[in-house]
Design goal:
single chain, 335 residues, alpha/beta, 11 strands
Length: 335
């Protein structure tokens, strides 16, 4: 029997657009879920998963560029945002189970499953375990892993890969402006600040002044991050997918450095089956702005519509040019 989410509590701000805030029953409690409804009944649905220390509002600008042509559902994953109180055990399998519960609650069949960074690994893992609920996957700068140094313990490994993000989880901030300033000084964010980014960053804060902190549960981040870097079952999921998938990769990295997580050489060495996974370079973006920057979000939205078979104008209300089929953004055609 399909369970119905509690709510909805409707919100609308210039920063995030109109969305509903829902609670979905999962193991151990309730998962916080944001939903940007489509303008018409019967429109495609996208289930979109955020990165390792992010939250659901990281997808708000993509929802804007979908322009009501698809419903976008984005949860705060277990141990983050408004889902921070959900208990362990943590890990990629736990997220996949939560996504299956969410899909059952909303009655999802034939949805597009998308994920950014760690969320892409969760999407691939979920797509392998629960393929009947989805029609295709869009992996945004994540989902394909590479062998990690075996001599490093989990904490040292995470520090080497996402050190600044892990250190942020131990910090406190006297007020919201100081947290805003922290992010505005981040190399990957400094040139791309916007109301969307501000709303996403502010959603992460919990506590009271002068002891505000990130909502992310450090143990959840530690378990998830270690599995993404080392767990064979998680790392192999992308190769086991039977659903069609596409990997969108950003030119630049986590600190806006010229070397991104992926490039043509790394993808060639990964020897992905192009009949199952198409790869698309997204130019002039970094690991974060591929999702939260305007051009990155516009491109991701175009790919989501194309993956759902509903490609078309994603200009929203900003007067930007329309996006035709997302194939026009690709270095090589989706097969």
């Amino acid at each position: 029997m399909t369970r119905h989410p509690e709510g909805p509590h409707r919100k609308a701000t210039p920063q995030t657009g109109p969305y509903e805030e829902l609670s979905v029953p999962v193991d151990g409690g309730e998962l916080a879920v944001l939903r940007w409804p489509a303008a018409e009944a019967g429109a495609p649905v996208v289930l979109a998963l955020h990165g390792i220390t992010a939250n659901a509002l990281s997808w708000a600008r993509v929802a804007h560029h979908l322009a009501g042509r698809a419903t976008l559902i984005a949860p705060d994953l277990r141990g983050r945002g408004a889902s921070r109180s959900l208990p362990g055990p943590y890990g990629i399998a736990a997220h996949a189970a939560d996504m299956a519960a969410l899909a059952d609650t909303f009655g999802l069949r034939g949805a597009v499953l998308a994920g950014h960074s760690m969320g892409a690994f969760v999407s691939a893992f979920t797509g392998v375990r629960h393929p009947s609920r989805f029609v295709s996957l869009v992996l945004v700068d994540g989902g394909l892993g590479f062998p990690a140094p075996a001599h490093l313990d989990p904490d040292a490994l995470l520090d080497a890969v996402i050190g600044p993000a892990m250190r942020r989880l131990t910090m406190t901030f006297p007020d919201r402006q100081s947290y805003r300033d922290y992010w505005r000084n981040h190399p990957a964010f400094s040139g791309a600040w916007s109301p969307w980014v501000d709303a996403y960053v502010q959603r992460d804060l919990v506590g009271e002044e002068p002891h505000l902190r990130s909502s992310c549960v450090r143990d959840a981040v530690r378990v998830d991050g270690t599995q993404v870097l080392r767990d064979p079952e998680v790392l192999s999921a992308v190769r086991q997918l039977e659903l069609p998938a596409r990997l969108l990769w950003a030119d630049r990295g986590l600190m806006d450095e010229p070397q991104g997580l992926y490039d043509e050489q790394r993808l060639a060495a990964a020897d992905l089956d192009p009949t199952r996974i198409a790869t698309h370079r997204v130019a002039d973006v970094n690991h974060y702005t591929v999702l939260i920057g305007d051009e990155g979000a516009r491109t991701v939205a175009g790919h989501l519509l194309d993956a759902a078979g509903a490609s078309g104008d994603t200009s929203g209300d900003m007067g930007a040019p329309s996006i035709p089929s997302a194939q026009t953004h690709a270095d090589r055609p989706h097969r």
